[in-house]
Each structure stands twice: as structure tokens, then as C-alpha cells.
């Protein structure tokens, strides 16, 4: 059980526990409270200067967040006010508990889509009360999952969704989301509820064939989309003009709402939001399913959505933390996210997380602390209490164009190219997730991507490299002769390096590989009339661990070499492996005089005399 | 897709393909035929001397094999003649196609038990014709699975059942088998068909409570068992007397049969074999299910039994090959085993494999080639055609005692202790398999053991060691300061070694670990009023691979260190990792002057001047 132990040794003893050492009980309690609510810590040093930064950032983020929220609620097949509720309650909780200074909290596109897709798989009628209740249940369990991962310090599980898998998943989801938005953009009345690309394209084709589209809607939608994409481009080119892109969605909403109101386009078939329920969140604790058949389903949906939401938030958090150089405790973040979603589920919200686009705006607008989330929350509160009637004439087409513009960020072709260049297996995982999302569904896509990622590790562990080392002229360094062509081999010696820990999956491969190299090198040397190999030196520097299968295959290797009158020599054996070799008495079989600190040492002892070299 | 490629490069190009180079077509055909049927190769050099060795070995093995066969058939709930058929047909096929010189082929205890347990899970009535047909179907698919693994060169999959898992599985199976034999040994009429220990003990208890046992049977059974265990002990102590143990079962059978015949004990409730169908194998090709509901079940049973059978045979084969120093091509062995089981399934046999006990006897009796299997086969043929009526009075208790004596070998306490010493995770896999067999069933046990083994790999890959290196006085060698307490650290430098390939599962852990070491070391050095660390040197010698997540975490590490005014230096970067660093332009970010061939080189360039050291 070493790994867990080593995981905690340094982190806890030195940073977490040291803080509490020798303090009074009251002080300990205060420190503990501060550790759960970082706001108690940074709040004491909060300045007017901080407030200015946070205020502007919060305001800018809010102007992006409100139209996005209304749009994302549609992805989850829920009424817009639930998303606004989420943007009011969850940022407050996060501001108190979160440790990132840049994340902006609220519903996010991919998580909303995932939630919507999984919910409608179980309950087809989106207007039914059951659907809403299952949504709260899923949100509750998403929070519980996140909290549990944080409390149990299982944050590492998030890393099991590899970077490549996330890139593929997000790109695929962006395409699916955009395709679904064609419904709003073109004003198509009937659209599939499935998320795959085939069904989506089918619906669009069907609508075109039957002329089920609305010209006014198309004009509003496409002009907004073009405007949004242009402002986005400007924001990207000139970092100082990022605010143009940030307020563009709100501008679109206001302009298009006024246009519809003046022209009464809603009477010409342009669908509008019509009604957003105003006022504050209602309590939904009694709506959550705690028994019955929907508990298990709600848990499944919640667990998946919660983990995907965490992946997004943690990855954003890490990026900004590295950029501004502060440390982010992954487990603490999970506790904050979990609590905020649990609170959200009790107050009529659905799953919220840190969103890519808003966090970027928040950061660029100069946020200083998590207090920007409080500002954001207050703005949303004002909208909820005062301005909901304003959205009566807001056309749905605008929301669709906002979603499409927001999701273009998620398709990251450069990242895909880089993944292809770096690692073909990673690329497979990426494509697995991408095509999984596009042609199947989001859950399968995740399973495929995670499976491919793990198969990669098993593959690599099963067939490690065993390379031949040579001496680099003028030094006592031995390196891979393929990598350093100047490195030369030693007379009558074969020096090999095993590039992996030796486990049951690869121990026979490693043994066979060593014997094959021996045979091959002997043949090659015989052709050049060089001396036969008498010593096989195995450089164990990369062998970080060995298991019982590995030990017995080394035993067999020793016997095989013995029959060939070749001596087995080990060099640079690590601590763990050395202990196991001693436990299994293999050191005695091989002989202690055959185990060296370095390859150079082995060559000096058993190699040719200096004049022969 | 590198791993597969590298797997084949050397083995095929140099040994397999080279043989065919520049040969005529006829010659190529002959070579190909020889490669499939090694008998065509070694048969040409066969001498009288070889024959003598093989004849004695075959005869000795047969005397052990015949009583064992009759007993093992009971484990599979089949009639004894099917096992004898298997010992007649399959050794012939193996002799022609196999490449091991020591394996003795026939039904084996664990595989027979596994087959019986899985078959009776699907069909409860052992006497029904369906049961027999499903047994043939399973045998057929066991052969197909083995053949497929060999032809597709997927032999490495066998290694996924780790040594530790096999030890646990075999020990558990031995206990279960022995427990079930109490039925025969005590003469209990009603016994559970389940394989777990609870049901077994329940049946025995029940029989004792209701006095459902037979004194004569107990006397015969226990005296035979004592005799067998004593001879076994003698055989182990004095290697030359191994034949005493080898012929002991046959002696027991003959003596007890005569006793029963003379005393007519069968009329006093001693159950006997009664009837073994004589004559040669009947064709069973038309009995195999090729459609209907039993095809899938037959396939599942066959695949599991086939893989377990292979594991046993390959592990024996490897042991003897290493002992006598000849190479064994795992894939070719699988083709031989697969063919022999397919042929077996067409001729009324059930799954055969290389058995531990018989192969050991075969080897000790001085077998020279696979021809000993032919001798064995001929002896079984004689028994089948001439001597089956002899077994009419053989008591079942003798068979039970033979099985118990044979399976005591499989409980390997020394191996378990060694596994505990070497690797605690391996021990968990071993115990998982053991308790899985004892309390659940054989299939679950396999799944549990394989899962634990893989979780181990993932664990180790997720939390690799990151160790601090120091310079060993008087050398330019840098090693783990925990392992070599004399190694000292360099002023203003922190030298770390990452002991694993860097993948998505561990990249954040590695990054955090490096930063924590930096913080910790800086604190420690500040306490001793030593200079602050300016350079972090990462020894990459054990980092055999890196993926795209790893690259981006290194990028983040670089930025984090930059903020702390600490320079990142890499040493001893391997070929694969170097290529990836270049592809991702990380080499340019870090700076080419920060990448060194060795740690010593980095210290010479950036470390303190010699006089300061």
C-alpha cells in the first residue's frame, strides 16, 4: 500500500498538518474554518483596489452570463429561470469556499447538454414535473459525488479523463450542440431529441424538405451569429478589446428584443422566450427523489455530470493557477464544487461548474479574488427580481446564435494536431471520444475514451523498450546506441537497459527480449569476427519496481544465461527493486559481486583492460 | 502503434524469416511444414538412445495417468472413458505439433473441475445427453480459443494472469477439489454440486449427522491416501525413487480392486467404478452445438477453460524449457494445444492440457522428446481395448484418494510467503483468487485476481516515486539519497528523478510532487541557512515515455518554476521523450542549453565552482 502512503506523506505532514502544530484550540478551530472557507482568510486583506477589479470583472462576466444561462437552460431542456437561479446561488457558495481566484461559476454548455441528454433518455416528456424533479435529483447527486471525491481525497480520479479525451469530447460536444442550435437559428418546429449527428442532420434535412423554417428567424439568427463571431475575432486579435466580445451577447439580446418588439415579428412566427419566471429561487429540497426508481437513475446521471463538470472546472482552475502562480488544492476545489451543487439542488438550480468562456472573460476583465463571483451573483439577483419581463420578446434565435458562438471555442484543432504529433495512442483516445459523441452518445464516448487511455498504459507496460547501451567516447556515460550513434559497445559485453518497471504483463517479454538481443548481437559480432559476449549487463535505472512474476522471470533469465556460459550483471538497481531482490534471495543467486552502482563500474570490473578498449 | 511493431521486429525478422531467405519453393514448403510439425525436424535425428528414454518415461507416466484420468473425469462429471480417450488422442497430436520435450498431455485436475463446475451451472443433469454435448462444444471452443491466440500471436494475453493470481487460484482449487473428494473417500451418497467451501462443508456435516457414510469405503480410501502421501514424500526426499510415487496410484488401484473382488465389498456398500466403456473413441463431430442457445454458453465455458488450460501448460513448458535450456515459442505451443483440443472435441474427448504432476514424472523418468507422449498414448490405447473390464471392482474411494494426493502439490505455501514478502499488491491478487475460489466460484476468482493485478499497475503508474538525488562522494554519480545516505546534495540545486513514464494519470501528481519537493527543500535549507535553490534538475532516465497530458504539465511546471525564479534543467532524456519534447516545442521553451546528457553535466555547467563544492 505504498502509493497512498507516499501520496500523503509530504503534502499533509508538511503543508497541512504543520500549520496546526503547537496552536491553541481556538486558533486550531479558526484555522480549520479558514481552510474550509478561504474567504475568511483572503477576506481580511481585501482592499478597495481588489474590489474595483472584482466589480468590473463581475459586471462584465454577468453581461455574458445572463444570455448564456438562458440559452444553456434549453440544452438541459429546462426553463430559463433555473439557470439564472444557478447563476445566483452557486457563485455565492463558491466565493466562500473556492480557492481559485479566476473561475466564474454557472451552468456550462457541455454539462448542460450532457444533463439534458441523460435526463431525456429516462423521461421523454420535458414538460413533466418528473423531469424537473429528476434534474434536481441529478444535481444533488452530482454535488454528493464531487463532495465525496474531495473529502475522500480521490481527486486523482479526475485525471483519469486524459487531456486528449477531453479535447475530443469537447470538440464532439461542440459540434453536436451547434447542430442542435440550427433548430432555433432556422426556426424549425420539430427536432429530434437524440444527440447524435445522424439524427440531427436528419431533422434539419426534413425541415428543409418540408419548408419548415422561418425567414425572419433566420435573418435575426444569422445576423446575430455573424456579429458575435466578428466581435469574438476582434476580442481575440486585440486582447484589450476582449470586452467587446464579452458584452456582444447582451448587445444582441437587447437589440434583437427591441427589433422584435417594434416589428411585432413574434406574430410572424418568430419564436420568443415569452416568459421567464421572476423572483428568487424557490426551495426544491422536497422535490428531490430520495426513494423510488428514480434514485438510482438520478445518481447515475449525477455522477457522470458531476465528474464531467469537475473535469472542466479543475482544468480551468489549474490553467489560471499556473498562469498567476498560486497553488490550487484539487481536493478542496471538489469540496467547494460539491457543496455548491448540493445547495443548488435544494434551491431549484441545475448543475453548475466553472465555465471556460466566462472564466476567461472574468480573468481578462481583471478579477482579483473570488469576490467577482459575488458581484456576478448580485447582478443576476437584480435581473431575476426586476428585469425578467424584458425578455418576453427576446427571440430564441439569438440564444441559438449565442450558444453556437460560445461553443466554437471548444473545437480545438490545434490541440488535436499537437496530440497527433506527440502520441498516436492519445490521438486514438481523442478520436474515440470525438466520434463517440458524434455518432453514439456522450456517455459511451466517455467510456470509449477512458478505455483507450487505459489500454495505452497497459500496452506500454506490456511491451517496454529494451535498448542496447554503448559508451559515449571520452566519458564514463552509457547511453542508447540508437539515440547516440557515437556510443560504442564494449568487447565481450552486452549492456541493455529495460525501460519500464517489470510486472507480470511484461516480465516474459523482457526476459525473451534480453535473450534475443544476446543471440542477435552474438550473430552480428560473429560476422565481424568479434569476441563472443561473456557478460550481459542490465541497467536497471528505469526499473522502478518489480513484482513476484518479474522476480521469477529474472531467475529463469539467470539460468538461461548460465547454460550459455554468460554472466548476468545488474547495474544501478533502485531502492525498491533492491529490497525485493534481497527478499527473494535473488541477489545471492546472481552474486553480490555482480551488482553495481553504475554501468561504468561493471565495465571497469568485468570489461576488457584499458589497453584493449 | 509502436509496441506491436517492436514486438515483431527482432523475433520475426531475425529468427523466423531469416530461415526462409533465399531458399527454393519446395525447401520453403518443407521448412514451413517443419515449423508447424516439429516432429518432422527432430524425428530425423531420433536415435535408439532417445527411444529408450522416451519409452521408460511414457510407460511411467501412463501408470500415473490412467488412474488420474478416471478420477479427473469425475471432476468434470463425465464418464471415465472420455478422459481415457483424451489421453489417447491428444498426446498424439501434441507429439506431432508441440515444441516442449517434457510436457505430458492429458486431462488436468483444475481444468476438469472448472469445466465440470461451469457445465453444471448451465445444465444441472449430468447424465443428460445435452451435458455431454455441451462438454464437447466447450472443448471445441477451448481449442478454437487457444488456436486463435496462437495464430493471432496474442500469446501475451496469457501473461495477464499473473504468477500470484495463478498460485492463489490453484491453491484454492486444490482445497475445493480435496473437499469434494471427501464424498468418495467417506462414501457419502448425497453431495452438493456447488463448488464453494460452505456448501461442501455443509454436505459433509450433513452426512456425518445422518450417518451417511460407509466404514469399508473409509478404510480403503484412507489407507490408500496414507500410502500415496508416504510414497510421495519418499519420492520428494530421494529424487532417484521418484518412480515409487509415480506407480503408487496404479498400485493402489490394483491392490484395492483385488481386495474388493475377493471380499465382495461392493455388496457391502463400497461404491465401485462398475463399468468403463471399452474400445476406441467414437466420432463426436455431430454432437457439437453449432447453433442454438448452447453455442454462446459453450463458447464462454470453452474460452475460460481454454485460457486456464493454456496458463497451466505454458507455465510448465517454460519451467522445463528454462531448466533444459531450449526455447519455447509460446504462440506455437498455443497452436499445438488448440489443434489437439479441437481434434479431441471431434473424438469424444474433453479439454486436455499439460499437467503439472505428469510432466514432472515424465521429466524425471528421463523423457528425451515429445515421443514419450506417443508411448503414453499407445499404453492408454491398450488399456482402452483390452483392460477396461478390470476396473469393474475398482472402488471410487481409491480415485478420491488419488485426486487428493495429486492436488496437495497445488497448495504452495512457500510461494505465497514469497509473494507476501516481495509485493503486497501481488499478495492481494493471490488472496483475491484464493478466497474467490473458496467462497464464490472459479470464474469470479479469475476476474477478481486479474482486476487486482491491473489495478496494481494503474496504481503504480498513477503515483510514481519522485526521489531526491545526491552526489556519491568521489564519483560523478548521482543516486537516491534515501538509498545511499552518503550521497550529498549540491548547493543551490535540487536534483530529482521521476521513476516512471509520465502519462495523464500521473502528470499532475509528478508536477505537484516536484513543486512540493522544491518547497520542502527550500524550507529545510533555510533552517540550515543554506542558499536557496536556483536550479531544479530532473533526471529523466526512468521516464521512458510521455504523452500529451504529460507535455502540458511540464509546460505548467516550467511556468510555475519561472515565477519562483527557479530554472528547470533536464538530464538524460531518452529517445522517445526527446522526440516528443521537440515536436511540442518544449525544448525551445525550456532552452536547449538546459538539456543535458547526464546529471553530472548539468551540475558542472550550472552548479557551484569546484572550490565551493
Can you describe this structure?
The structure is a homodimer of 613-residue chains. The first copy, chain A, has 24 helices and 8 strands. Chain A has 613 residues and is mostly helical. Chain A has 2 domains: 36-456, no CATH class; 463-612, Transcription Regulator spoIIAA (2-Layer Sandwich), CATH 3.30.750. In chain A, helix 6 packs across helix 7 and helix 7 packs antiparallel against helix 13. The first copy, chain A, is elongated, with a radius of gyration of 31 Å. The first copy, chain A, starts with a helix and ends in a 7-residue tail after the last helix. At the A-B interface, helix 1, helix 12, helix 17, helix 18 and helix 19 of A face helix 1, helix 8, helix 12, helix 17 and helix 18 of B. Chains A, B: Keywords: Membrane, Transmembrane, Transmembrane helix, Transport.
Computed over alpha carbons, the radius of gyration of chain A is 31 Å
**Total strand segments of chain A:** 8
Number of domains of chain A: 2
For the largest interface in this structure, which chains are involved and how many residues does each contribute? A-B, 96 and 97 residues
Based on CA inertia axes, which overall geometry of chain A fits?
elongated
Instruction: For the record, give the distance between the C-alpha atoms at the N and C termini of chain A, rounded to a whole number.
Output: 47 Å
Overall mean confidence score, pLDDT of chain A: 85
Largest sheet of chain A: 6 strands, mixed
Contiguous helical run count of chain A: 24
Unreliable segments of chain A (pLDDT under 50, ≥5 consecutive)?
A: 1-15
The largest sheet of chain A has its strands arranged as 4-3-5-6-7-8
Keywords (chains A, B): Membrane, Transmembrane, Transmembrane helix, Transport
Pfam family, one (chains A, B): Sulfate_transp
Protein name (chains A, B): High affinity sulfate transporter 2
Membrane topology (chains A, B): Multi-pass membrane protein
Amino acid at each position: 500500500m505504498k502509493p497512498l502512503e507516499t501520496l500523503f506523506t509530504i503534502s499533509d505532514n508538511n503543508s497541512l498538518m504543520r500549520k496546526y502544530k503547537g496552536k491553541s484550540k481556538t486558533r486550531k478551530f479558526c484555522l480549520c474554518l479558514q481552510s474550509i472557507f478561504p474567504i475568511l482568510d483572503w477576506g481580511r486583506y481585501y482592499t478597495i483596489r481588489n474590489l474595483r477589479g472584482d466589480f468590473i470583472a463581475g459586471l462584465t462576466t454577468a453581461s455574458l452570463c445572463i444570455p448564456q444561462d438562458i440559452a444553456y437552460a434549453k440544452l438541459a431542456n429546462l426553463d430559463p429561470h433555473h439557470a439564472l437561479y444557478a447563476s445566483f446561488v452557486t457563485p455565492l457558495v463558491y466565493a466562500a469556499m473556492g480557492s481559485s481566484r479566476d473561475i466564474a461559476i454557472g451552468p456550462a454548455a457541455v454539462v448542460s447538454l450532457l444533463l439534458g441528454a441523460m435526463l431525456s433518455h429516462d423521461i421523454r416528456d420535458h414538460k413533466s414535473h418528473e423531469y424537473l424533479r429528476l434534474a434536481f435529483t441529478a444535481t444533488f447527486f452530482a454535488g454528493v459525488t464531487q463532495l465525496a471525491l474531495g473529502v475522500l481525497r480521490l481527486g486523482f480520479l479526475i485525471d483519469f479523463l486524459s487531456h486528449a479525451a477531453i479535447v475530443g469530447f469537447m470538440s464532439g460536444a461542440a459540434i453536436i450542440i451547434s447542430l442542435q442550435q440550427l433548430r432555433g437559428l432556422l426556426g424549425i418546429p420539430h427536432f429530434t431529441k437524440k444527440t447524435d449527428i445522424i439524427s440531427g442532420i436528419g431533422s434539419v434535412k426534413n425541415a428543409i424538405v418540408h419548408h419548415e423554417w422561418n425567414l425572419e428567424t433566420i435573418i435575426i439568427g444569422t445576423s446575430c451569429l455573424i456579429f458575435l463571431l466578428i466581435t469574438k475575432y476582434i476580442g481575440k486579435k486585440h486582447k484589450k478589446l476582449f470586452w467587446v466580445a464579452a458584452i456582444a451577447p447582451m448587445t444582441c439580446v437587447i437589440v434583437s428584443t427591441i427589433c422584435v418588439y417594434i416589428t411585432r415579428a413574434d406574430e410572424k412566427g418568430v419564436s420568443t422566450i415569452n416568459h421567464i419566471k421572476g423572483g428568487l429561487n424557490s426551495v426544491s429540497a422536497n422535490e428531490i427523489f430520495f426513494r423510488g426508481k428514480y434514485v438510482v437513475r438520478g445518481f447515475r446521471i449525477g455522477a457522470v455530470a458531476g465528474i464531467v463538470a469537475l473535469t472542466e472546472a479543475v482544468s480551468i482552475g489549474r490553467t489560471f493557477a499556473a498562469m498567476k502562480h498560486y497553488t490550487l488544492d484539487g481536493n478542496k476545489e471538489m469540496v467547494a464544487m460539491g457543496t455548491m451543487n448540493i445547495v443548488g439542488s435544494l434551491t431549484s438550480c441545475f448543475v453548475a461548474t466553472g465555465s471556460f468562456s466566462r472564466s476567461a472573460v472574468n480573468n481578462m476583465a481583471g478579477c482579483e479574488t473570488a469576490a467577482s463571483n459575488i458581484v456576478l451573483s448580485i447582478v443576476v439577483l437584480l435581473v431575476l427580481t426586476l428585469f425578467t419581463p424584458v425578455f418576453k420578446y427576446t427571440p430564441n434565435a439569438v440564444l441559438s446564435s449565442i450558444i453556437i458562438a460560445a461553443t466554437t471555442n471548444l473545437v480545438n484543432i490545434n490541440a488535436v494536431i499537437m496530440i497527433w504529433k506527440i502520441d498516436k495512442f492519445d490521438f486514438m483516445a481523442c478520436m474515440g471520444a470525438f466520434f463517440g459523441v458524434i455518432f453514439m452518445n456522450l456517455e459511451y464516448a466517455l467510456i470509449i475514451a477512458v478505455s483507450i487511455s487505459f489500454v495505452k498504459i497497459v500496452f506500454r507496460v506490456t511491451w517496454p523498450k529494451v535498448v542496447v547501451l554503448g559508451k559515449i567516447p571520452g566519458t564514463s556515460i552509457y547511453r542508447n546506441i540508437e539515440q547516440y550513434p557515437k556510443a560504442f559497445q564494449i568487447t565481450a559485453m552486452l549492456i541493455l537497459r529495460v525501460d519500464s518497471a517489470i510486472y507480470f504483463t511484461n516480465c516474459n517479454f523482457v526476459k525473451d527480449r534480453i535473450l534475443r538481443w544476446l543471440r542477435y548481437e552474438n550473430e552480428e559480432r560473429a560476422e565481424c569476427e568479434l569476441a563472443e559476449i561473456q557478460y550481459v549487463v542490465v541497467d536497471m535505472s528505469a526499473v522502478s519496481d518489480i513484482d513476484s512474476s518479474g522476480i521469477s522471470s529474472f531467475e529463469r533469465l539467470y539460468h538461461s544465461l548460465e547454460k550459455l556460459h554468460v554472466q548476468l550483471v545488474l547495474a544501478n538497481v533502485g531502492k525498491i527493486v533492491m529490497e525485493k531482490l534481497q527478499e527473494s534471495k535473488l541477489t545471492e543467486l546472481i552474486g553480490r559481486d555482480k551488482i553495481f552502482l553504475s554501468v561504468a563500474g561493471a565495465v571497469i570490473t568485468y570489461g576488457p583492460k584499458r589497453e584493449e578498449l
